[in-house]
Amino acid sequence: MTEQWWKKSVIYQIYPQSFKDHNGDGIGDLPGILEKLDYLESLGIDVIWIGPIFQSPLIDNGYDISDYYRVNPIYGTDEDLEQLIAETGRRGIKIILDLVINHCSDQHAWFQKALQEPDSEEAGYFYFLKTDTDEAPNNWRSNFGGPAWTRTADGRWYLHTFSKEQPDLNWENPKLRRKLYAMINWWLDKGIGGFRVDAITFIKKDTTFVSRETEKGQLYPIENYQNYPGIGQFLTELKQETFQKYNCLTVGEAPGVPPEMFGDYAGENGYFSMIFDFSWEHMRGVEFKGTLEAVSAWRERIFKSQLQIQKAGWSANFLESHDQARSPNKFLDKQSHSYDSITSLATLYFFLRGTPLIYQGQELGMTNAVRSSIEEFKDISAHNFWKEGLALGKSEAEMLKELNDNGRDNGRSPFQWNCNEHAGFTTGTPWMPVHPDYLTVNAEQAQADENSILAYYKKMIRLRKESAWSDVLIYGSFEPILEQYPSLIAYRRSFESKTLTVVCNMSTEPLEIPVIVKDCLLTNQTNYRSEGGNLKLNPYHSMVLEESRM
């Protein structure tokens, strides 16, 4: 594939509400990001993905946009964003914004006019249907629970893949598509580096709107319509009318794409620069987390995905996001949370083929907080899950455990800057409580400790971006190795005549493997031993090394 700048990048994701509050109102904002650019620059990243900052009633924390052209005042002003774009540009850092074009807010001017004037042009921007009864047009279930249809005061029904406050945009309408393309180009002309494209595999619908067969009384999950036939026409036009005109980065949130279609989405001439690899994003469904069986099952997912993707295109690799639990909780037994285990997680994902993403606080080793009641959760999907679960007869204890383990609020607690009140995030009352471990897990302490998780992330970034091995780690092929060891995740990266080996012992037991170390480029533990043709790894010991070949 031709060389593109974003393949060399390391992307840092900021959830703006929770990163840094500058004005003391308890909500993170754009001036807060500006205030912390020195921190981000010192980390070594060169792309910042900022979550949705456009005007919004914040029903879904900004993924319900009411004006695509204006910054939400809680985050600052339009001028603040322009200043941020300019200042990051001076530092060699690009800004990418969240692009939400499957749906908008029910407070958007388009939808408001559609409600008031059923025959208006704007009414055609949405999916409105009428029925002869009081029942919804079909049995589809929204991703946030409950029916995917809501009735208006005049008796029409409108479709929403997510919450009822997020009506889906009608991509079948060319006038609507032109409006969206004009908005996208307007932002690119302002100098942003590109977009993370939200929920894009939902834009094509089954326009027969027929009900699907389910067990009695259940709704049919609308998520089954992801990547629906015909979506390629929309995505091709989207690229041609917008992204292709700029040397920009596009990261598609594209779950539901089968391996045989990966090239269409993120290949040489794909719709996007890359798409997220959701193949191994969690270990739900894998019993005995932290055991050899769990490691082997997770490794199988990672390796299968990497081998498929390198045939077709480019992926965005991640451990955490604003939609998920923290990675130590997702992948490690709670008793195993430590510097060694967390840096092993970091090592095994960071050097995979693809562009690595770091979610805010991941570089500190932040973990899930524990909430004791549904009232402590902010996320709309958590509350919908709770109501739906109660209706299905689930216990409150069962649902609380699921939300504490996997809920989206886990990744959204405020960034922990220091030991001051509210972890230095705000001088006011934070919109979401700060994790109680901020006294020991925070950026200020990590920056002062050359053996911190943060320091290790900086070493990984330098090795990938600024070393003699950068081309191997960026462009090199991927090859699984040593799969006979259940606790080991190991692979080789090769480019031209050079090869690196990554080994990660994801176990509480030591491990001896047949590897001869020629040169150790990175390790999370210094006391490794290489004797008699074997490498002896300690528990949760990870290394990036050059092998001696016999």
In short:
By secondary structure, this protein is of the alpha/beta class.
Structure explained in plain terms:
This protein is an alpha/beta fold. The strands form six sheets. It has an eight-stranded parallel barrel. Strand 13, helix 8 and strand 14 form a beta-alpha-beta unit. Helix 10 packs parallel to helix 14 and helix 11 packs antiparallel against helix 12.
Largest sheet: 8 strands, parallel, barrel
Assembly state of the chains shown: single chain
Helix content: 25-40%
| Separation of the first and last Cα atoms | 32 Å
Rg, please?
A: 24 Å
Low-confidence region ranges = none
Question: Structural class, from secondary structure content?
Answer: alpha/beta
The dominant shape is globular
* Tally of helical segments: 15
Report the mean per-residue pLDDT as an integer.
Answer: 95
Which SSEs are present, and which pair or pack?
Layout: E1 11-14, H1 30-35, H2 37-43, E2 47-50, E3 54-55, E4 67-71, H3 78-90, E5 94-100, H4 109-116, E6 128-129, E7 140-141, E8 149-151, E9 157-159, H5 174-189, E10 194-198, E11 220-221, H6 231-241, E12 249-252, H7 262-266, E13 274-276, H8 292-312, E14 315-317, H9 327-331, H10 339-350, E15 355-359, H11 380-391, H12 396-406, H13 443-448, H14 453-466, H15 470-475, E16 477-480, E17 488-495, E18 498-505, E19 511-513, E20 517-523, E21 529-531, E22 534-537, E23 542-547
Parallel strand pairs: 1-2, 1-15, 2-5, 5-10, 7-11, 10-12, 12-13, 13-14, 14-15
Antiparallel strand pairs: 3-4, 6-9, 8-9, 16-17, 17-18, 18-23, 19-22, 20-23, 21-22
Helix pairs in contact: 10-14, 11-12
